[in-house]
Design brief:
The complex is a heterodimer of chains A (155) and B (92). Chain A is of the alpha/beta class and 155 residues long. Chain A is 45% helix and 17% strand. Chain A has one domain: 3-Layer(aba) Sandwich (Mannitol-specific EII, Chain A), CATH 3.40.930. Chain A has a four-stranded mixed sheet with strand order 1-3-4-2. Chain B has 92 residues and is of the alpha/beta class. The chains are: A alpha/beta (155), B alpha/beta (92). The interface between A and B is medium-sized, with 29 and 21 residues.
């Protein structure tokens, strides 16, 4: 994953969250602080989950909080938080959640490239296990960089 | 065949689902083209198969195309299994 959309300060590990909404707010706040989104984007995510259900919990223990780009995204970016104690979204199969990877998109190819990168990273189980065990943001950034270099070599 | 990967927004989770469905059908040796879209547009599309999360099953009841539900968007094996079951049913 590229540095321009995932930086060390966008990663927070072993956080405490009261419930799913608090966890989503924390992951969204990192997007806002990084300048990727306005606060309305975070509210849009929460409204969408309340209205349509927690389908952002796309895999076991993993949620990808996001809303439509026009709901307050400024540029594409990612935040990652892991939770000390998992939270329940009310998903019938994939609860409880302890990894939240929030993102903003914009129209265009750079957004596709970012999500492609992200999907490639998240669909390897060992990468998620790594995130769950990781203790520092720097460790995660280094791991992702190494992973990318390995990926490049493999191609 | 033509497959649609679907989520509420049509460009976040569905894009990730699309990539994983593409990987699954490639591994199955199927000649399939996978696109992604949002659930409301998907209802009106005529394709060979729609792949979606259970949360959109209700909305997709009115869909013009057959639908399979995937619980875990990252689980290539589950996606393969659902697509295979669909093909078996269709064939039989």
């Amino acid at each position: 994953m590229q540095d321009r959309y995932l930086r060390e300060e966008n990663i927070r590990l072993n956080m405490q969250a009261r419930d799913w909404e608090d966890a989503v707010r924390q992951s969204g706040k990192l997007l806002v602080e990084a300048g990727y989104a306005g606060e309305e984007y975070v509210e849009a995510i929460i409204e969408m989950v309340k209205k349509d259900g927690p389908y952002i919990v796309i895999s076991q223990g993993l949620a990808l909080p996001h809303a439509r780009p026009e709901e307050g995204a400024r540029k594409e970016g990612i935040s990652i938080i892991t939770l000390k104690e998992p939270v329940y979204f009310g998903h019938p199969d994939n609860d409880p959640v302890d990894v939240l990877v929030a993102f903003t998109g914009s129209d265009g190819d750079s957004h596709l490239e970012m999500l492609q990168d992200l999907a490639g990273f998240l669909n390897r189980k060992e990468n998620l296990e790594f995130l769950r065990r990781a203790e520092s943001s720097l460790e995660v950034i280094d791991y992702i960089k190494n992973n990318r270099e390995k990926g490049v070599e493999a191609n | 065949m033509k497959i649609l990967a679907v989520c509420g927004v049509g460009q976040g989770s569905s894009l990730i689902l699309k990539m994983n469905v593409q990987q699954a059908v490639d591994e199955m040796g199927l000649d399939a083209e996978v696109e992604n879209t949002d659930v409301s547009s998907a209802k009106m599309e005529e394709v060979d198969l729609i792949v979606a999360s259970g949360f959109h099953e209700g909305t997709l009841k009115e869909a013009m195309s057959p639908v399979v539900i995937v619980k875990d968007f990252m689980d290539i094996e589950e996606i393969k299994k659902e697509v295979q079951e669909f093909l078996d049913k269709k064939g039989g």
